[in-house]
Automatic annotation (TrEMBL):
Residues 64-99, 100-135 form the EF-hand domain. This is EF-hand domain-containing protein. Belongs to the mitochondrial carrier (TC 2.A.29) family. One of its GO terms (biological process) is transmembrane transport. It is a multi-pass membrane protein. Its main location: mitochondrion. Solcar repeats lie at residues 170-256, 266-351, 362-450. It is found in: Mitochondrion inner membrane. Signal peptide: none annotated. GO terms for molecular function: calcium ion binding. GO terms for cellular component: mitochondrial inner membrane.
């Protein structure tokens, strides 16, 4: 295989082999680290299943993978001139619904262009992708796209895109399950801050004054250390159904939007509309759990024996309509949160790429930073509606609280507490963004490894 490229190809191969730390058998029996980036290559090339690659297996893997890359190269090279240009890259990303500008496509191309021709030849393509476990064109496009599913305990943005092959293989649901587990751990870790936020939203201007520290002291004195996690059970339980409903609804809405042209790729604004509608459907179905979470957050020791008892008491005392108190402001908050979150995330990512030409992948820390900032901006825009929603959910549980409509409640807050009253309790919410994103990412990546989903979107 390497005779065509001469000694340079063989040297390049062995050098990359050492840099990637792929375990090749040379008399010993080194084991493959399942957390290493090369684990998928070892698993694919290890035909005798002994956990290592011998030289013959390694050469055979490279031979087969090079043939795959050759097919992909010719597929991207639409005019068959032996070179991939900016328009070819744009088209490759367009097939999975990612529309990039010529400037962004140029940045991707520059990360592979070694000879300065502003195009990519076969050698450059092969050298760039040779040690990346990719099996088809969608894998290549998704490698360039690079995205993560992170849970911060707030509204979820536009869902991730999955190919038909990923849906049929079960990859999609394994990745979603990794997101669910990450969200569960993340929300549990930041639950005390979330409960403090709810307390300050509901009681902030009356009988719950003081700093965050005094708020924690109040909760500890009233119910002990475990009281800091009140309401977290239902908050975790609603992640899985909300995620499943949202992604299922998203796929159905996309099908309706495409109409008779089933292969048409949705534009960005269409994906945003579909994601917002899917979020509204999911929130409508699981909204009673939101009400239960708020009531359990606010409960005093001994008030309810559990989630079922809380639901039973609400139903008996207030009727079924109580499970949808605050529904309108909750629905109104979806669009500003998701829209601003998505717009800020893309703006920050592209801004980083503009300052770092030649790099197509921002990297994990940059993406985490963009996610934390964009989530914060989305939360700031939708917070007043979230506060009104929480107060409406809690009205019956607060002694002497009048049963006001959304507009009346907004008017009262501004009149009695000023504009700052619309942001009551925002400090603990801001404090939990960074730990929530960080914990969510770490758990998400480990769960993807355990479930057989690699970093670049393959299995």
């Amino acid at each position: 295989m390497w005779a065509r490229e001469g000694q340079r190809g063989g040297y390049f191969c062995l050098r990359r082999l050492l840099l990637e730390d792929i375990p090749v058998k040379q008399g010993g029996n080194p084991k493959c680290d399942p957390f290493a980036p090369s684990a998928q290559i070892v698993e694919t090339g290890d035909t005798n299943q002994d956990g290592v690659l011998d030289f013959e297996e390694f050469v055979e893997y490279l031979h087969n993978h090079e043939k795959q890359l050759k097919v992909m190269f010719h597929h991207v090279d639409r005019n068959k001139d032996g070179r991939i240009d900016v328009e070819d890259i744009q088209h490759c990303l367009h097939i999975i619904g990612v529309n990039v500008s010529p400037e962004d496509a140029t940045r991707i191309m520059l990360s592979m262009d070694r000879d300065g021709t502003m195009t990519i030849n076969w050698s450059e393509w092969r050298d760039y992708f040779l040690f990346k476990h990719l099996s088809d064109m969608e894998d290549v496009a998704r490698f360039w796209k690079r995205s993560m599913i992170l849970d911060t305990g707030e509204q979820l943005t536009v869902p991730e895109e999955f190919s038909e092959a990923q849906k049929k293989s079960g990859y999609m649901w394994r990745q979603l399950m990794a997101g669910v587990m990450a969200g569960s751990v993340s929300r549990t870790g930041t639950a005390p801050l979330d409960r403090l936020k709810v307390f300050r939203q509901v009681h902030g201007s009356s009988d719950f004054r003081g700093s965050a520290l005094s708020g924690f002291k109040y909760m500890l004195n009233e119910g002990g250390p475990w009281s800091l996690w009140r309401g977290n059970g239902v908050n975790v339980l609603k992640i899985a159904p909300e995620t499943a409903i949202k992604f299922s609804a998203y796929e159905q809405i996309k099908t309706v939007m495409r109409g008779h042209d089933e292969t048409r790729t949705l534009r960005l604004h269409e994906r945003f509309v579909a994601g917002s509608l899917a979020g509204a459907i999911a929130q409508t179905i699981i909204y009673p759990m939101e009400v239960l979470k708020t009531r359990l957050n606010l409960r005093k020791t001994g008030q309810f024996t559990g989630i079922a008892d809380c639901a039973k008491q609400i139903l008996q005392r207030e009727g079924a309509a109580a499970f949808y108190k605050g529904y309108v402001p909750n629905m109104l908050s979806i669009v500003p949160y998701a829209g601003i979150d998505l717009a800020v995330y893309e703006t920050l990512k592209l801004s980083w790429l503009n300052r770092n030409t030649g790099l197509s992948d921002p990297g994990v820390m940059v993406l985490l930073g963009c996610g934390a900032v964009s989530s914060t901006c989305g939360m700031l825009a939708s917070y007043p509606l979230a506060l009104v929603r929480t107060r409406m959910q809690a009205q019956a549980s607060v002694k002497g609280s009048p049963k006001l409509s959304m507009l009346s409640l907004l008017r009262n807050i501004v009149t009695q507490e000023g504009i700052a009253g619309l942001y009551r309790g925002i400090s603990p919410n801001l404090l939990k963004i960074v730990p929530a994103v960080s914990v969510s990412y770490v758990v998400y990546e480990y769960m993807r490894i355990m479930l057989g989903v690699d970093i670049e979107g393959g299995e």
